[in-house]
# Entry
Amino acid sequence: MKTKVLRSIFISVGVLFALTRLLAADTIITFDAPGAGTGPTLGTEPLAINAAGVTTGFYADASNALHGFVRATNGAITTFDVPGAGTGSDEGTVAWSINPGGVISGNVTEPGFSAIHGFVRAASGAITTFDPPGAVFTIARNINPEGVIAGDYFDANFTVHGFVRAANGTITTFDVPGAGTGPGQGTFPGFIDCLNPAGMITGDYVDANNLNHGFVRTPEGTIRTFDVPGAVNGTSPQGINPGRTITGNYTDASGLNHGFLRAAAGTITAIDVPGAVNGTFPSGINPMGAITGNYSDAVNTHGFVRALNGVISTFDPPGAGGFVGTQPLAINPMGLIAGYYTDSSNVFHGFLRTP
# Structure
């Protein structure tokens, strides 16, 4: 009798544990930054998440001015503005990336779009702005654990060039061989997760015919270019992990977008979410090789996560819809995903999805 009772207790505890895990799986937390606007196209847009689960991004206020924010793991949100930031529509502060130490990189737009500068914000809140030599507009898109920043800048002719800023402030500029030199052409390091801990950078470049191709740059400056087989007008890397695995998207001859996974050895695998009609767009990859991004079906845009074994799960925060749908941007080592979505009124909100 005693054995049966104990077995019943163990079974009940096991069922409760399994149920707890089931209920905890795929939890989505939504949030809004204090001061975020509540009208159409306004609101909160998280862009990056670090290993600890701290999230950063920006929000648009009621006047559509942009401000940076940091969301701690306990949900507390701190907002910030880079000194000199404009307060007009689409002007202000955008936080692009955050490293494990809580250091943030991004860009700030001056009043009247007279200039755009890169910035680095220390965990203490101290902010330093910077520009590569000859830059008119600077976008500081990525920061790694060492405090190295990678991004791009526009020169006076609106040609785009890549740059790397060391933690000590030294800036090195670079151009991918074959990159065009006309307005809007050039070298575009990807954003958020396109700089790995070792200092490897991935992104795309636009040639003289306005076609996009992928590239990888080593910390020493060696650059290799690549195209996904079947890509006609666009190979666009969107993330690189410590194992040098790259994810991104490409466009085929019919104009349809597909995701891809490029192994360190160069082998490329196509990724398509089942049910995708208008394309699959990976946006980030974590150290374990899990990929997140979005896909579009006949109705709207939804989020997905692809495990290392290739299994794909799809998701949407409660109330997602509107003209943007669900847009996951980054995935951390624990599988936490950060991104944003629009509701039926086309207001932007942030979300975090647990694995």
Q: What stands out?
A: Helices lie at 2-24. The first helix runs from residue 2 to 24. The longest strand covers residues 43-49.
